[in-house]
Amino acid sequence: MKVDVLLGLQWGDEGKGKVVDVLTPKYDVITRFQGGPNAGHTLEFDNFKHVLHNIPSGIFHASKVNIIGNGVVLDPITFKKEIDSLKEKGYDITDNLYISKKAHLILPTHRILDAASEASKGKTKIGSTLKGIGPTYMDKTGRNGLRVGDVLHNFDEKYAALKDKHEKMLTMYDFEYSIEEFEAGLAEGIELLRSCKLIDSEHEINKYIKEGKSILAEGAQGTLLDIDFGSYPFVTSSNTICAGACTGMGVAPNKIGEVYGIFKAYCTRVGSGPFPTELFDADGEEMRSAGNEFGSTTGRPRRCGWIDLVALKYAVMINGVTQLIMMKGDVLSGFDTIKVGTGYKINGVVTDEFPFELPENVEVVYEELPGWKTDLTGIKAEADFPKELSDYIAYLEAKLEVPIKIVSVGPDREQTIVR
Questions:
Q1: Neighbours of 338 (CB within 10 A)
Q2: Catalytic: which of 4, 21, 28, 41?
Q3: What would the pLDDT profile of 272-309 be if each residue is shown by its tens digit?
Q4: Is 153 in the active site?
């Protein structure tokens, strides 16, 4: 038995939460392997909508094991709020949720450092979610961080020492803050963590593999936000790609099985950074409106544009994608013509390779395909697809050289067509 990996191929917000929820019945164990509460995975079913931030998207299936892996960064305050919100809706998920002792903790001063650093950048700001993600990963790689397992061993002493260090760092910034405001709820969050099932997740996951259990690893953010291979420096602070599943769970590369790559039928981005196919006209506004393109974590309007095959082919290559999943085909139903970015023209030369840096003046080479002008949201089977949609799918499969196995035609788990 191998671990299947599901991850985003664009700049995040591709719909990973919905697909994990749809696929979960096939699996025994669902894991998160990187990122933190900067992720917002939206699930809709039975007239119920919920956004998960730290917790794996298989949590609503009571018989499944859900694991927060060592590569995740966890904020005790937001984690408790998430647990409390689920309990209010009738979901007590603590019985089937496990947390790696090696996952790093986001502390209140991490969030303050994040805000201070972003404010100091002015016009060059990254577009951080201000959740403390970057400073936490910096402490992790700098060997200063606190881990979930530390809540069981002299936590107060360790926390005071790191807090003191952070407060000295904050003197470098012209930034006003109230530590008490940020610390509110920390003690309750730590106490909740102590009551949770804290495990050596690398051992447990490998035991599940040996026992023949099926495992699905859920990525957060998207490939183009990867710290190594994304549009640096406008990226997140973790490895969002398939290789990150190995380090974020303690799983050997030869234990990776299927790699599900999720992409939208168009493209979006939240925050700052290059976006070659971005639209600033009525077409972009129509995508935003029809797709409800607002950040599930931040509420920020998402930037919208046509699908970018240069970036998408790059993401398929980096991740070793074996199956593709196309989301939000229904959002493009209002367009007479669909554009597809197939190349970048940089300094007069056309390339289909994703470059070291994306210059602001990059010109996109487009091909055009006819739109389907059909409401897809009620479709239940591939046989009912309009010809133009089938042609669009076939076109993308030929360009990407990977089959599109699932097509989503709406936000509900039932609006999912398996081909």
A1: 22
A2: 41
A3: 899 999 999 999 999 999 999 987 666 789 999 999 99
A4: no
